Amino acid sequence: MFGAKIKLDKDLFERCKKHAMEVGYSSVEEFITHILEKEIRNREKKNTGEEKEIVNKLKGLGYID
Q1: Is residue 19 scored above 90 in pLDDT?
Q2: How far is CA 61 from CA 47, 55, 65, in A?
Q3: What pTM value is reported for the model?
Q4: Per residue in 22-50, is it b (16+ CB within 10 Å) or e — as a string?
Q5: Can you tell me whether residue 34 is helix, strand or coil?
């Protein structure tokens, strides 16, 4: 792990801690890492889909082959 530190609002940290323990994560850091990885993966998939849609529109208009 890289070891970078980020600051969170105390209330947000406590909420994350509560959810992490409820779900069974070994630490708040593990929980937050999982949530961030999941969100980034979703955004990357969305961006890829948008790019494909644009390419298909351009092909349909005859701008690219």
Answers
A1: yes
A2: 21, 10, 10
A3: 0.68
A4: eeebeebeebbeeeeeeeeeeeeeeeeee
A5: helix
